[in-house]
Amino acid sequence: MGDKLEDPIWRVLDDTDDTDDEEESDLARTNTIFTLEPRGQVFVDEFYTVLAEVMDEDFEEEFPEEYMRLVLVGKLISDLKEPAPGWMRLEDLQKRCKVEMDDEGNLLEIDGRSSVNELAKVMEKNGIIKTKGDCASWKA
Questions:
Q1: Which of 12, 42, 70, 123 is least surrounded by Cβ atoms within 10 Å, i.e. has the fewest?
Q2: Domain ranges of the chain
Q3: 10 Å Cβ neighbour count for 139?
Q4: Are 100 and 123 in contact (CB under 8 A)?
């Protein structure tokens, strides 16, 4: 992977769990079936999650939870790409990392405030902002 790990990467896992927590009777017998399934880890640069909505439909159908996570990160990045005037302190940028959307009474909240430093690095790397100390400014 070379230098690809120098900037933040999100790891999206398929973590489905089909186990039951019910207690079984001592009289019950079990059959255990072990099945090998190919699985993979997907590494995604946050900046490119804005393209998640144009992904192959097979990915969306096979991994709906992971697809939705990518789409939501993409919406946050899209919102953050909108310029703000002048220099902004990182704590103010952190406030912009929480997005609320209302769709006919259905509220969707995306909270990326705990990832403000990583998001700022990705945006700077991709030429959206420049940072200086604890401040950021959008490039014209």
A1: 42
A2: 2-19+41-138
A3: 10
A4: no
